[in-house]
Model the fold of this input.
Amino acid sequence: MDKIVALCKRRGLIFASSEIYGGLGSTYDYGHYGVLLKQNVKNEWWRAMLSERDDVVALDSAILQHPRTWEASGHLAGFTDPLADCRTCGQRFRADHLPELQCPRKPSKPPGDGPECDLTEARDFNLMFETTMGPVKDAGATVYLRPETAQGIFVNFKNVLQFSRKKPPFGIAQVGKSFRNEITPGNFVFRTREFEQMEMEFFVPPAAASEWYELWKQARHDWYTELGIRADHLRLREHDAGELSHYSSATADIEYLFPIGWSELEGIANRGDFDLTQHAEYSGEKLEYFDPQSKQRYVPHVIEPAAGADRATLAFLVDAYDEEDVGGEQRTVLKLHPRLAPVKVAVLPLVRKDGQPELSREIVSALRGRMQTEYDEGGTIGKRYRRQDEIGTPFCVTVDHQTLEDRTVTVRERDSLAQQRVAIDALAGVLAARLAEPWQSPKLAK
Ligand code: GAP
Done:
């Protein structure tokens, strides 16, 4: 993980937020390449959820919602983690995570086991961030930053049903920020207090819920492997009865083998009719579906695949990270699926003279608009290749002396390091075709 964190900082993908003020506990900012990478992850999610289906529609609901939302959903009463304080060091810990944590005074021991530790009894701590709506800070003005995007979907069920003209089975998908006042955030962007979720609520006739639960588990698992995650680093783990949330009759986690061990990447839950029933009760609105064919009225059941955009981005980074020896020199390379790579092609003049920069810029103009393209003329060619390898650019196009004679360029491939001579006129077509080819992680062969 340290190597991933260092690479992300070095190349400006992801770095500590508010750095000039010394940072703000486990909040992160995404720089240029990080934005492009996470955007590609989200685009791939939208592609799988929307573009490749006709039974899911999109939504972007507000982060601030009516406080009754969180009463109905159970978050106000029950979205808590057990918290224990240490009277000696003043630190706070997740009481149910103590064995995995370190005592700040004696890091070889978990909190509570050090000679001077003095932990309080665990008490419930609500993870929702509170804020105040409007200029007066009285009790009635308290609102919450949403702790999940899902509830914005449930409260809009009736709206969406009306304007989308869909009928169950159909889904509503949303991507957006969520906030949780995590007691122990950490492991880079794995657990933060502000993060992005990619959630889809799929409404089905009650009798079809189990079948759709199975289908969505498989579909979401396959989404990761199709984007290059190695299958032996991914697993589906069914929750046992003791682990299930109050609303769920079945839940499975898609787990990835992070450097911190197998950890949740995404959850797929069969939420039954819990959410629609609760919101119907608290709002007084009927949240149900009337089937004109069977003349039956029912509350749809919900299958929910809930993923984290930051956590998925971290998994793709971890899975892609590689170090190898090339001609006696070590190169660090992100072997990302080309569809996820922040930059698809870099155009590099061999020297900064003889008309090479001008011709390179001409090539950049022709490629730009078709694929994310970068121009780089700074430093030796070896240094520039290494820079592109580190951000996972699948192709580098080099303009050299020969280019000026015969209008051909060298295309260097990130994974195999193979080089091919291609005519400038054919370049955009060749690269587009290569980017569309099926791809699997070269790390599988190792
Ligand atoms: N609506 C259901 C729900 O929110 P969840 O398992 O709490 O379920 C779904 O969250 C996903 O959101 C997780 O699998 C994870 O990828 C991401 N996530 C949750 N908490 C997070 C945090 N503190 N930091 C980063 N990602 C988080």
The mean pLDDT is 95. The chain has 13 helices and 23 strands. The first strand starts at residue 14 and ends at 16. Residues 148, 150, 180, 182, 191-192, 195, 197, 199, 264-267, 306-308, 310-311 surround glycyl-adenosine-5'-phosphate (CB under 6 Å).
